[in-house]
C-alpha cells in the first residue's frame, strides 16, 4: 500500500502470505527499486563501514558513514548479492548536486532498523554474470531495502546458518518511508525523524 503525502514522502506498507507447502529458508524479505544513476553518493546511520550481515556485525560498529555505490560493491570473482549494511536507521542516496532520496522507517516503526545495499548493476545483471568482468554498469542504481535477511553461515565450509539468523518463508509485514531530498542539508530532512 502506497501513501503519497503532499511533501512528496511516500509511505510504503508491504505484507505477504506464503503459498504452497514450502516453509524453509529464503534469502531475504524486502524490496528492490532503482534510482537515477547519478545518485551514487551513499550516507547512512547503521552498521559499517564494511559489508556486514545479521551474523557478522562485530567488526562493523553502528555509526554515521559515507561512501559511494561503486565503493560499496564487493567484487567477488563470481558476482552475487553483496554490499549489505545491517542495523540501518536511515540511508540517503544523492547526486553530486545533493538531490536524491532518503529511506527511513515511519515514525511509529523507527526503533526497528532495516538493512540495505546499493549496486551499480541490476539484479538481473548480477544473476547473469559468471565473472566480475562480465558486469556492465547501467543507467540506474539498484537499491535493496531488507526487513529480514539470511545470515552468511554456509554448509560449503561445514557450518549451516544458525537458526536465529534464518529467514523463513512465512507471513511478513513491514513499512518504509521514501523522502525526496533536494540540495538542502540532509540534517533538515532528518529533523522530523530525530524528533519522533
What labels describe this entry?
single chain, four-stranded antiparallel sheet, mainly beta, seven-stranded antiparallel sheet
Word description of this protein:
The chain has 196 residues and is mainly β. The protein has one domain: Beta-galactosidase, Chain A, domain 5. The chain contains three helices and eleven strands, in the order βββββαββββαββα. It has helices at 69-72, 123-128, 186-195, and strands at residues 2-4, 10-16, 28-36, 41-47, 62-68, 85-88, 90-94, 100-104, 114-119, 140-149, 172-181. A seven-stranded antiparallel sheet has the order 1-2-11-8-7-4-5. Strand 1 (2-4) and strand 2 form a beta hairpin. The protein starts with a strand and ends with a helix.
Question: Could you outline the blueprint of secondary structure elements for this entry?
Answer:
Blueprint: E1 2-4, E2 10-16, E3 28-36, E4 41-47, E5 62-68, H1 69-72, E6 85-88, E7 90-94, E8 100-104, E9 114-119, H2 123-128, E10 140-149, E11 172-181, H3 186-195
Antiparallel strand pairs: 1-2, 2-11, 3-10, 4-5, 4-7, 6-9, 7-8, 8-11, 9-10
Amino acid at each position: 500500500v502506497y501513501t503519497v503525502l503532499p511533501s512528496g514522502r511516500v509511505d510504503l506498507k508491504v505484507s505477504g502470505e506464503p503459498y504452497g507447502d514450502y516453509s524453509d529458508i529464503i534469502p531475504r524479505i524486502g524490496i528492490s527499486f532503482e534510482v537515477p544513476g547519478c545518485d551514487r553518493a551513499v550516507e547512512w546511520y547503521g552498521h559499517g563501514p564494511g559489508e556486514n550481515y545479521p551474523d557478522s556485525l562485530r567488526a562493523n560498529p553502528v555509526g554515521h558513514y559515507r561512501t559511494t555505490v561503486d565503493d560499496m560493491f564487493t567484487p567477488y570473482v563470481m558476482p552475487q548479492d553483496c554490499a549489505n549494511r545491517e542495523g540501518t536507521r536511515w540511508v540517503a542516496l544523492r547526486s553530486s548536486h545533493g538531490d536524491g532520496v532518503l529511506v527511513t522507517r515511519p515514525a511509529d516503526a523507527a526503533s526497528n532498523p532495516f538493512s540495505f545495499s546499493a549496486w551499480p548493476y541490476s539484479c538481473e545483471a548480477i544473476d547473469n554474470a559468471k565473472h566480475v568482468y562480465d558486469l556492465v554498469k547501467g543507467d540506474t542504481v539498484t537499491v535493496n531495502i531488507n526487513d529480514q535477511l539470511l545470515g552468511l553461515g554456509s554448509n560449503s565450509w561445514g557450518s549451516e546458518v544458525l537458526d536465529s539468523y534464518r529467514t523463513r518463508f512465512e507471513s511478513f509485514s513491514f513499512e518504509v518511508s521514501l523522502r525526496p531530498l533536494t540540495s538542502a542539508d540532509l540534517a533538515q530532512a532528518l529533523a522530523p525523524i530525530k524528533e519522533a
